[in-house]
Amino acid sequence: MTGQVVTRFAPSPTGYLHIGGARTALFNWLFARGRDGRFLLRIEDTDRERSTPEATAAILKGLDWLGLDHDGEAISQAAGAARHAEVAHELLAKGAAYKCFATQDEIAAFREAAKAEGKSTLFQSPWRDADPATQPDAPFVIRLKTPLEGTTVIDDQVQGKVTIRNDQLDDMILLRSDGTPIYMLAVVVDDHDMGVTHVIRGDDHLNNAARQMGIYTAMGWDVPVWAHIPLIHGPDGKKLSKRHGALGVEEYQAMGYPSAGMRNYLARLGWSHGDDEFFTDEQAQQWFGLDGIGKSPARLDFKKLENLCGQHIAAADDAALLHEIDAYLKAAEQPALTSAQRDGLGRAMYCLKDRAKTFPQLLEKAEFILAKSPIVPDEKAAGQLDAVSRGILAALTPQLQNASWSRDELEGVLSRFTEENELKFGKLAGPLRAALAGRSVTPSVFDMMLVLGRDETLVRLDQAAAIGKS
């Protein structure tokens, strides 16, 4: 197949953007973007009862968070119903389809009889080769004429050659009796009209490909390149479900995972490039290929997800991190940062992002700059502020009054203080963490002092030393 690569993501708007759907979208996006192709979005909203605007909005929001931009406007499948019906009638006119007047009762009776005789229950319509002159004036469906003999071969880029006997395929319905097209027809017509060259989707659609190829062949259209990717399983190897944790991508955003880490992890979920684990979007687009997708279901591993997210937080630009933290707080329905908090967080980012795997972890470490004086220590930190420790802080404060407030100078002051008072540094660091942050797990005391500045540091030390005094 020559020409520009065109892929598509075609979700049904009946709920949130599932993690499996997000990975399918990512694979299509990577394949197109890495080849200067086009990545299209089609909302498969033909199920009018279950499709909702809210679900469509949730899917668009999930794709936006993941950074998977699509080319052109999102296409509504339901809006193309007239075009889908037109193709069905074209197939009818060329003899590749036929009108079937069989009722539901007749079809049920056929299947019951076939089952009793131990024969195939695939419905064989008596109207397939009927004389048009004998057709009644009654409701009918339009069925595709599937070859009765031979095989259909799906040359799949992931699954290999998959051969299906044609006598195992029924004459599928194209148009219902009310004139509305079925999903299988709509998919093929839309993919053809959109110029889709590569169909990358879950392997639960593999059998659909055999039936859809009948429409391509009958219409004389080019069959796209197929790539049916394995589904995602939970850590226990079973089909992914709510018991395994979050299923919708918006839940991952609300839990504080960075989108770059999520993209990296989803790309590695069923696809590999040598031993590479951590990579950028640019590298993923350059490396991604269908030959790197495995045949076996991938397993969710939250530890790997966190490790990759930690690496992406550490490597991220500070301003970009701040922007994404704002979006995380909104998604998690938490209060937005004040202007002062954002400024402080920006100053502190260099000493926060190296060891945080999620945004909640980063913000917990940032409590020293986000909190206002007076600092209220948590239970563990409060234990570090006994009478002896408060005395140590009171004695240290004058030593810091005239320090030049550089790291070297501060390290020198604290080193001399511990030597003169015959203290181990840990005996001083604990109370300092409690005084400056109200927490026992923080960035280094030197980083906190540098970010807070001289005045705020001294105020917090004075306040901590004065705890318990009347």
Automatic annotation (TrEMBL):
Q: Which GO terms describe its cellular component?
A: cytosol
Per its UniProt record, what PROSITE patterns does this chain match? Answer: AA_TRNA_LIGASE_I
Cite the InterPro entries for this sequence: aa-tRNA-synth_I_cd-bd, aa-tRNA-synth_I_codon-bd_sub2, aa-tRNA-synth_I_CS, aa_tRNA-synth_I_cd-bd_sf, Glu-tRNA-ligase_bac/mito, Glu/Gln-tRNA-synth, Glu/Gln-tRNA-synth_Ib_cat-dom, GluQ/Sye
Q: Tell me the Pfam families matching this sequence.
A: Anticodon_2, tRNA-synt_1c
| Residues reported to bind ATP | K242
Place the motif 'HIGH' region on the sequence: 11-21
Q: Which residues form a coiled coil?
A: none
Q: Where is this motif: 'KMSKS' region?
A: 239-243
Catalysed transformations (reactions): tRNA(Glu) + L-glutamate + ATP = L-glutamyl-tRNA(Glu) + AMP + diphosphate
User: Predominant location of this chain?
Assistant: cytoplasm
Known EC number: 6.1.1.17
Q: What molecular function does GO assign, one term?
A: tRNA binding
What does the record give as the function of this protein? Catalyzes the attachment of glutamate to tRNA(Glu) in a two-step reaction: glutamate is first activated by ATP to form Glu-AMP and then transferred to the acceptor end of tRNA(Glu).
Q: Which PANTHER family match?
A: GLUTAMATE--TRNA LIGASE, GLUTAMATE--TRNA LIGASE, MITOCHONDRIAL-RELATED
Q: Which family does it belong to?
A: Belongs to the class-I aminoacyl-tRNA synthetase family. Glutamate--tRNA ligase type 1 subfamily.
User: Cross-referenced NCBIfam families, in alphabetical order?
Assistant: gltX_bact
| Record protein name field | Glutamate--tRNA ligase
Gene (name only): gltX
